[in-house]
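thought: fold this chain, then report.
action: predict
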Amino acid sequence: MQPVHEWIYQLDEGRVGRWLKYALVAAVLCIVPVFFNLRVYRGFSQPEAMDQAQVARNLAERRGFSTLFIRPFALQLLTDKAQRDKRMPVPVSRTNSPAANLHPLYWPAQLPDISNAPGYPLLLAACFKLPVIQRQFSIPANGVRFRPDFVINALNQGLFFLAVILVFLLARWLFNAQVAWWSATLFLLTDVFWQFSISGLCTLWLMVLMLGMVVCLVGLERCLAADERTGGRQWAWSIVLGILLGLCGLSRYALLCLAIPIAVYVLVGPWRRKLWLCAVILAVSAALVLPWLARNYRLSGTAFGTVSYAVQQGTWSVPDSRLQRSLQPNLAAISAATLVDKLRDNLSVILVREMPLLGTGWAGLLFWLTVLFPMASETHRRLRNLCLGGILLLAVVEALGQDHPASVQSAIAPDNLLVLWYPLAMVFGVALFFKLLGEYRHELREYRGLLFLGLLGVTSLPLLACLYGARGSGQEEPRVSPVILQRFARWMKP
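observation:
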């Protein structure tokens, strides 16, 4: 009977049982994305996702950072700068139409893109250049699935699983294995991130970069705990942090503001030579960002291209995306009071609707309770305060940069910046949950399992409802289906 008992032990608690658990987790991670794509995906609905995808295609085809998405406002900026630099003659127009000032012979077939940050399109272009994927693109698109969209979805879901791993490691380093497993599980069951994984947006790429920056800060804290205040590891973490900060700014210009809370975090910390550490972080990030900003200024006269006017867009005088469709918008009519009104209206909606849930789900509510409890560790307190300051800063940036009223904005939108702080906030919220369970373990002994099931159910219920209520695969709008458009395009010359 001894071999039988040994086999049962190995199956239940030993090596075999652990491998069975890992195999079950791996099977779930492989099956759920396939099932979610088949049930929910209906094509990209965000114009920014399709715009960045076609820029990535041009990069992969060695046509440079160019676009076929013609924005009249971008064309006007490019023309005005070319005329000021005498690279283009100023036409003598006999009409008063602004379009008559656009020289049709100057611009090539591929217009330089000044509306997208380069980070995410470069990532997509690198993915498109893989030989396995290039062979798939050469096959005619006769099915209902457009292969480039499928590649983008697979990349984003890979980034999603990478973010899950980073959440686990971050929670393990900051707290313990129990908090790490529950944080990763709740993050994996959050419906909004699955929706972002099939949206084609760069949100999950930005979240991986954000988690990488937090991991670098935790690495600096671990160097401090190990009394390596002036060692080489500290400078290495600072350089990597500067690279990730620069990549964040190159992927979405609005996130350059994160340099402020990170610099404050380093300057108020107990590190030696913290001024030099902060200088290294900012210098490395600036070395990545400034060449691209110089390129934009050389082409359009603005450092961020059309994004430089994102604050003016969405006001009552320039509503929605009207600015991008204008050749000569009356920007002088937009006063400071108009911008204050935009900030007030959008921020009030963000404070009420998005900030309590951090733009995602109910698990974000746990984070706000950490403000009421003292932190046992200085590292935890500094990271919690960094998260609080980053949330408030990005709320203001999001309110100013939205081109539509916040009351009509969807959670799955490129302007949703608060969602980037959700992983760190959720780790602190889960840690507080276990801390309260430990302090009141005798009083809550009978309700412990119910509390765990409640937290798990509240987090996963939107995902289950989405999977149950989905209507199946296929494009929701056949008019914008890439497969149908390709079939019609074959009837005509390029």
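thought: worth noting. Residues 472-476 have pLDDT under 50 and may be disordered.
final: tokens above.
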